[in-house]
Design goal:
heterodimer, A: about 400 residues, alpha/beta, 10-stranded mixed beta sheet, 7-stranded mixed barrel, 12 helices, about 25% helix, globular, B: about 1100 residues, 7-stranded antiparallel beta sheet, binds adenosine-5'-diphosphate, binds magnesium ion
Chain lengths: ~400, ~1100
């Protein structure tokens, strides 16, 4: 079990929506099965399309759950997806029909809570079965105050958002306690601003700095919505100071890091100009490694441009070509924005390309120890093919240290 | 890397006859490979002894050798064709083993043939279980404690260390043959012996047993750049201990968390790297301990496998095709994904539905088998079903099986499980059998808890809970008051989403299936069709590959051309297999070429017909009344005209639907004709009208009626149910006792709603059994204007009484007179005309002392169509399908699809391949009930040589005189014929052994009998030196090289049982008819003169065409 998760687990224990986490035993070995009480619910999209289903999880805060509806095609790893802060402000649709089969376990949490606005599934497992499980997904959702809707034709929904791009939507029970009318749902779907123009990072970044890992190297990680598996990787070779997204370059350099890590996070990078400014100051001063939003922020800091994709990447099966190795990596992805390679051509080289649509997935800054990737080398969920990128970061720091040592001599 | 240009021609080895553990999935893979390689411009040379396959169709390769798959034969093919490379990974274990032999024998070096797609060391590492384990330990993967033994003694030492229970598994075997679990020392000693015998290198692996753990499979692809992807993950519902090929399996994996799955994925990649599979598809099997998550690797197959076929159908990713392209140098990222067109193949398919595979067995045909599933595969076929959820897909799979189940439970077939006592049921759910799933459902119906059932069955609680959701709905429906009409839309929707068929609802709520359908449609719950697209809708896909479900949105794209629906043949089973898939696929090709849009419906994942690019549209669906009606509705919605449905090419499965489907849509021969042929009275009347003699006989619905019939016709008599395939439950009876038993058995079957049941509308047929008659099959096609074309006249080698599907047959007839042949053809024409057939028909005759009797007529494509097509060069299935769609022979001749009457200068023999070695303890005797799983073909310039080739192809080694004795034990009526055979063999220098009676007869005929053999029992309970040894003892000592043993009719069977069973176990050539013995002797004689020559089908067909005066006899050269 990873330390970061435990610490946040403790944070979570002090958060009101959280129920006591003891006596969570594995149903597979316990007698009783989770009885599903069917309460009709509906999901209405901003374009007016309606999806029938049944209510699951917690009662939506404010009666209706609304947000930008996105999908993820991973076959397993629902808990990691739900606890990934990058989904802040979004309603997550799982395209695989059976969700909750193997329950949930604290070890699989990617952060202290659930930042998504809701979850849409075709079928929520009534009973889960796995030796690792500590709690079923239904109760997990309730514990995190997360509302959901099941029984939805998620394929129809996916085809819809695939074609129009991420689309706002709203769902709630349509019968029984807390019932809402379709009109009310339509209204809030239309009113839903989506993620544009909102600084979602501010909502998910850590309030105070904290330290994880015990490795010899010193790394500062800027938390735009960092996943705990990333900290595990860095923690293997470094002592990591995790700082709020608002940390200034001065604050960062004051810690004399051997490397700075720019984390993943939610939403549009243009909403975090302060982070871009910070990184601008850091480039060239200290080795940098960025992932996902961190990758986009680095690109902006280099004067690059960010484009919104016709349809984003939302799965754990995307082929990415490592242009240096000439090898394919199957990667975990979740982004609607991407770096325009032209815009950084003069300062950086493209190191990774998505084979499905040619989108830029990684870059290395020329003449400066800094690189970043759009996809998720930490996976969770997803393949380990890109894990080497974390070792690269250590090598980069080692070389830089060597260089400066040589410089001093 | 681009494709290789340094090689021009590639040899592909097929998997030979369909056997248990190696079925038509290798026709699917071979066919895909042939197409892929030719697409790339390579010259493809194909070797496969199986004439029923689509890949051996002359249009799929440049040179097709339907020849025995032996080292010698392969050598001469290589010598003639001089291929640059050999691709060994697409023809199953057969091709892999044969390729290894070619390497070891130095043949590949001699002719400079490069092994591509896998190298010898990789194969050795993966196939030798000891090497494999060492390799896996070396890369840090978990394996099971085990040891290797080459003798029973060694094995005892090994088990000392490991401790019981253990699993015994031979090296280099197929489908787990000879493997078993031993719990006691006694069991162990026996199992070790069997295992050693089964292994070609007499080596067994003894391993700690982990029966009850979860079992998983990953389908992996690797290219020469070490890019690796998982195509599909599979979870076995049946835990470790039941062979994956016999397990109900589900894709994708359901009960592993992502961290666990990723560890497994990494392990699979490490495994392929270490083994050294340079390119292609592999299958890696894992086991997981449920309570700790401990993962161990079980085995890997460095080749396309049964599971790859399943994985391809489950995901839409064409594994075999891609494997072929990787073998010639491409990398995954260079090959586009046909389905999305836009994205490359270097990705991992994700699916948004659940796939369930259920195997189908044939234990009922093998008395003496326990019906228990174990580590050795015993199933003969499988079905696959796609649903949005597991409950929906498992219920669809149940009704696809065609075993009387209309779903998981809640149908008439459920009764037999309801009749079980709790104690029996408790035991039953603990043992893997074909019935376990239904027994589990019954236990859930009785309210047993998931936890109790988990303890008993070790089936994962998630699956059990999902099943209980189905059962709860079943109970709810049963209790529903107010009739079908009162079911609301939400109630219907939930019911259908859980996979219930209208028939189930009707049975539970009360009412007819039609009423249920009407009520459902009235409630506004209509079938929707989703698409299999490899990406869970993340990208737009244009695949015409659909499955039904009950959701909001349907994705079928309207077609514009006139369309024809072709109903496939469902799961492979004995009596109905690949031959029918061949017919359906050919129909699809022919009709597509003729400008129709073709729509395939089938539920068999092993087949070519279920490749999404075989037809314009594929519906992977059960072939039931309801499911077909739903497809008709979906298709009728399209603009282009729905011309009709072809029901007569898929065997009995679609034919059964003929009279329930809209009559105006059934193409070709009408339902009335089908009934006329099946209905005993009508058929008899018809034969009388045409005055074509039939064996005397009558029908009976009770034992008394049967006895009455026999009063009239006398014994021996043949008893059989109507409307069955493969002579199911058919028996020759010699007296009232036999007859009563047979009738009792049949009426028992009736109550199960099973195939071959006895009921008023399905009476039993009782015929005079024609002894010593020659059986003949005639395949023909009749067109709409009344012309009948005879496709082929096949003379059987074995006499009537041996099922046509189990007997060898030869084209052209080898002993029949021209007059007789004319009579046979005239009768066939007359029958086809009288039935007003429009399409294919097969008529079977028995010729007794020159008089022709008709046995039966099937107004549908027969098992022999592919054989006939390959023997004569005429594409009979293509012709038949065009005729059914309205063309006349005149038009087809003009097109060049139908050539003139072929002039045959060569002989073709079809031989059946029987699975007795899989079912130790069953009598290896042939009879009127079909039991063969597959067939092979031998072609040569004389009937004798063709027969010997067919025997070689069937796996019979031809012994030399010095190898040992030829043993004869004959029924009196067979002695004359037997003596002829013995004489021929003696002239060739073979030395004879025989049982007393036979020995005396041979002696009289002046033949020297070296060894008189004792009756079984006589010797074995006396010390050996006391009397002569018996046949079984001699075989155990390996002294017999050929066994000629014909049944003694009544009584003395038991004796023969032992002999034949021993022969089957020791793999000693066994001839159970004098006819076969004679052909064998003649063939061996001719073989002495010449040595075997190989010749491609293409050159044979050209010769035929030339002789009969046309350019090409093998159909249009369409590019596929
Ligand atoms: N150690 C074991 N304990 C229990 N069952 C086993 C063990 N090893 C294999 N089996 C069972 O036997 C089956 C066949 O074994 P496998 O190694 O896959 O041979 P094959 O080559 O026939 O597939 C497996 O599918 C599994 O169910
Ligand atoms: N009257 C008969 N005399 C001798 N053999 C018969 C007779 N009727 C059927 N048979 C044998 O039984 C086999 C199966 O009978 P058939 O009617 O062809 O059943 P199926 O419909 O399964 O092919 C035939 O191939 C033939 O060998
Ligand atoms: Mg296996
Ligand atoms: Mg027949």
């Amino acid at each position: 079990m990873n330390r970061a998760a435990t610490e946040h687990g403790n944070d979570a224990a002090s958060n009101p929506t959280n129920e006591p986490t003891n006596d969570l035993t594995n149903d597979a070995t316990k007698g009783d099965t989770v009885v599903s009480r069917i309460q009709p619910a509906a999901l209405v999209m901003a374009d007016g399309s309606v999806f029938e289903g049944e209510h699951i999880g917690a009662v939506p805060t404010g009666g209706i759950a609304s947000g930008e509806v996105v999908f993820n095609t991973a076959l397993a790893g629902y808990q990691e997806v739900l606890t990934d802060p990058s989904y802040a402000g979004q309603i997550i649709t799982f395209t695989y029909p059976h969700i909750g089969n193997y329950g949930t376990a604290a070890a699989d949490a990617e952060s202290r809570g659930v930042f998504a606005r809701g979850v849409v599934v075709r079928d929520l497992a009534r009973r889960h079965s796995n030796w690792r499980a500590e709690q079923d997904l239904g109760s997990f959702l309730e514990r995190h105050g997360m509302a959901g809707i099941a029984g939805v034709d998620t394929r129809r929904l996916t085809r819809l958002i695939r074609d129009v791009g991420a689309l706002p939507g709203a769902f709630a029970p349509t019968d029984g306690p807390g019932a809402q009318t379709l009109e009310q749902l339509t209204a809030s779907a239309e009113a839903e601003p989506g993620t544009d123009g909102i600084d979602l990072v501010a909502q998910v970044t850590t309030a105070e700095a904290y330290r994880v890992g015990s490795g010899p190297r010193r790394v500062v990680a800027l938390d735009f919505g960092i996943k705990s598996t990333i900290l595990e990787h860095l923690g293997r070779y470094a002592t990591v100071d995790v700082l709020p997204a608002s940390a200034t370059a001065a604050e960062i350099l004051a810690l004399e890091p051997e490397g700075v890590f720019l984390s993943n996070g939610p939403g549009d990078p243009s909403e975090v100009p302060y982070a871009v400014a910070t990184v601008k100051e850091l480039v060239g001063k200290v080795p940098i490694f960025g992932i996902c939003l961190g990758h986009q922020i680095l690109a902006l800091a280099l004067g690059g441009r960010i484009v919104k994709l016709p349809f984003g990447h939302h799965g754990a099966n995307h082929p990415v070509m490592n242009t240096e190795r000439g090898q394919v990596e199957i990667t975990s992805q979740n982004h609607n924005f991407a770096v325009d390679p032209e815009s950084i051509a003069s300062v950086a080289e493209v190191t990774h390309i998505n084979l499905n649509d040619g989108v830029c997935q990684g870059l290395r800054v020329t003449g400066v120890p800094a690189y970043s990737v759009q996809h998720h080398p930490e996976a969770s969920p997803g393949p380990h093919d890109s894990a080497y990128l974390f070792e690269q970061f250590e090598t980069l720091m080692a070389d830089a240290a060597g260089a400066t040592a040589a410089g001093r001599a | 890397m681009p494709k290789r240009t340094d090689i021009e021609s590639i040899l592909l080895i097929g998997s030979g006859p369909i056997v248990i553990g190696q079925a038509c999935e290798f026709d699917y893979s071979g066919t895909q490979a042939c197409r892929a390689l030719r697409e790339e411009g390579y010259r493809v040379i194909l070797a496969n002894s199986n004439p029923a396959t689509i890949m051996t169709d002359p249009t799929f390769a440049d040179a097709t050798y339907v020849e025995p798959l032996t080292l010698e034969v392969l050598r001469s093919i290589i010598e003639t064709e001089r291929p640059d490379a050999l691709l060994p990974t697409l023809g199953g274990q057969t091709a892999l083993n044969l390729s290894m032999e070619l390497v070891e024998a130095g043949v590949l070096d001699e002719f400079g043939v490069e092994l591509i797609g896998a190298d010898a060391t990789a194969i050795a590492t993966a196939e030798d279980r000891e090497n494999f384990k060492d390799a896996m330990v070396e890369i840090g993967l978990g394996v099971l404690r085990s040891g290797i033994a080459h003798t029973v003694e060694e094995s005892m030492e090994v088990v000392e260390e490991i401790g019981l229970p253990v699993v015994i598994r031979p090296a280099y075997i197929l489908g787990g043959r000879g493997t078993g679990i031993a719990k006691t020392r006694e069991e162990f000693a026996a199992a070790a012996a069997t295992g050693l015998a089964a292994s070609p290198i007499s080596e067994i692996l003894i391993e700690e047993s982990i029966a009850g753990w979860k079992e998983y499979e990953l389908e992996v692809m690797r290219d020469r750049n070490d890019n690796q992807v998982i195509i599909c993950s599979i979870e076995n519902l049946d835990p470790m201990g039941v062979h994956t090929g016999d397990s109900i399996t589900v894709a994708p994996i359901q009960t592993l968390s992502d961290p666990e799955y990723q560890v497994m994925r990494d392990a699979a990649f490490a495994c392929l790297r270490r083994v050294g599979v340079e390119t292609g598809g592999s299958n890696v099997q894992f086991a997981v301990e449920p309570d700790t998550g401990r993962q161990v690797i079980i085995e890997m197959n460095p080749r396309v496998s049964r599971s790859s076929a399943l994985a391809s159908k489950a995901t839409g990713f064409p594994i075999a095709k891609i494997a072929a392209k990787l073998a010639v140098g491409y990398t995954l990222d260079e090959i586009p994904n046909d389905i999305t067109k836009k994205t490359p193949s270097s990705f991992e398919p994700v699916i948004d539905y659940v796939v369930t595979k259920i195997p189908r067995w044939a234990f009922e045909k093998f008395p003496g088998t326990t019906g228990e599933l174990g580590t050795s595969m015993q199933s003969v076929g499988e079905v696959m079903a796609i649903g949005r959820t597991f409950p929906e897909s498992v219920q669809k799979a149940c009704r696809s099986l065609e075993l009387g189940q209309i779903g998981l439970n809640g149908g008439p077939a459920e009764q037999r499980y309801r009749d079980m006592g709790d104690d029996d049921l408790r035991v039953a759910v603990g043992i893997g059998t074909p019935d376990r799933l239904f027994e589990v459902a019954e236990a859930l119906r009785r309210g047993w808890s998931v936890d109790e059932l988990y303890e008993l069955s070790r089936i994962d609680p998630w699956f059990l809970d999902q099943l209980s959701i189905v059962v709860e709905q079943r109970l709810w429906l049963e209790q529903h008051q107010g009739g079908i009409e009162s079911l609301t839309r939400p109630e219907w929707r939930r019911t259908k989403q859980l996979g219930f068929s209208d028939a189930q609802v009707a049975h539970l709520v009360g009412g007819t299936e039609a009423a249920a359908r009407a009520a459902r449609l009235a409630a506004g719950v209509i079938t929707t069709f989703k698409t299999v697209d490899t990406c869970a809708a993340e990208f737009e896909a244009s695949t015409p590959y659909h499955y039904s479900t009950y959701e909001d949105e349907s994705e079928v794209r309207p077609g514009t051309k006139p369309r024809v629906i072709i109903l496939g043949s469902g799961p492979n089973r004995i009596g109905q297999g690949i031959e029918f898939d061949y017919c359906c696929v050919h129909a699809s090709f022919a009709l597509r070429d003729a400008g129709y849009e073709t729509i395939m419906v089938n539920c068999n994942p092993e087949t070519v017909s279920t490749d999404y690019d075989t037809s314009d549209r594929l519906y992977f669906e059960p072939i039931t009344h309801e499911d077909v009606l739903n497809i008709i509705e979906a298709e009728a919605a399209s603009e282009g005209e729905l011309v009709g449905i072809i029901v007569s090419l898929g065997g009995q499965t679609p034919l059964k639907l003929a009279d329930v489907l809209p009559p105006e849509l059934v193409l070709g021969t009408g339902p009335s004709a089908i009934d006329a042929a099946e209905d005993r009275e009508e058929w008899a009347a018809l034969c009388a009208r045409l005055d074509i003699p039939q064996p005397a006989g009558g029908t009976a619905t009770s034992t008394d009626e049967a006895l009455a019939v026999v009063e009239r016709i006398g014994y021996p008599a043949l008893v059989r149910p109507s409307y069955v395939l493969g002579g199911r439950a058919m028996e020759i009876v010699y007296d009232d006792v036999d007859l009563k038993r047979a009738m009792a058995a049949l009426s028992a079957a009736g109550t199960l709603g099973r195939e071959g049941g006895l009921s008023a509308e399905r009476p039993v047929l009782v015929d005079r059994f024609l002894e010593g008659a020659i059986e003949v099959d005639v395949d023909a096609v009749r067109d709409g204007v009344g012309e009948t074309v005879i496709g082929g006249v096949m003379e059987h080698v074995e006499e009537a009484g041996i099922h046509s599907g189990d007997s060898a047959c030869v084209i052209p007839p080898s002993t029949l007179s021209d007059e007789t042949i004319d009579v046979l053809c005239d009768y066939t024409r007359a029958i086809a005309a009288e039935l007003d057939v429009q399409g294919p028909i097969n008529v079977q005759y028995a010729v007794q002392k020159g008089q022709v009797f008709v046995i039966e007529a099937n107004p549908r494509a027969s098992r022999t169509v592919p054989f006939v097509s390959k023997a004569t060069g005429r594409p009979m299935a293509m012709v038949a399908s065009r005729v059914m769609a309205g063309s006349t022979f005149g038009e087809l001749r003009a097109e060049g699809l139908l050539g003139p009457e072929p002039e045959l200068e060569h002989w073709s023999v079809k031989e059946a391949v029987l699975p007795f070695n899989r079912f130790p303890g069953t009598d290896a005797l042939l009879g009127p009930e079909m039991r063969s799983t597959g067939e092979v073909m031998g072609v040569d310039t004389s009937a004798g040589l063709a027969f010997v080739k067919s025997q070689l192809a069937a796996g019979t080694a031809i012994p030399e005189p010095e190898d040992g004795l030829v043993f004869l034990s004959l029924a009196d009526r067979d002695k004359p014929g037997g003596i002829e055979a013995a004489t021929l063999l003696a002239e060739l220098g073979y030395r004879l052994a025989a049982t007393q009676g036979t020995a005396a007869a041979l002696d009289e005929a002046g033949l020297k009998v070296e060894q008189v053999v004792a009756r079984i029992g006589v010797a074995s309970d006396a010390p050996a030196e006391a009397g002569e040894p018996d046949a079984v003892m001699l075989m155990n000592d390996g002294r017999l090289t050929i066994v000629i043993n014909t049944p003694r009719g009544r009584g003395a069977r038991a004796d023969g049982d032992y002999i034949r069973t021993a022969a089957a176990e020791h793999g000693v050539p066994l001839l159970t008819t004098v006819a076969a013995a004679k052909s064998f002797a003649i063939g061996i004689g001719e073989l002495r003169e010449t040595q075997l020559k190989v010749r491609s089908l293409q050159s044979i067909h050209e010769a035929v065409a030339a002789a009969s005066g046309t350019v090409s006899g093998s159909g249009p050269e369409v590019d596929r």
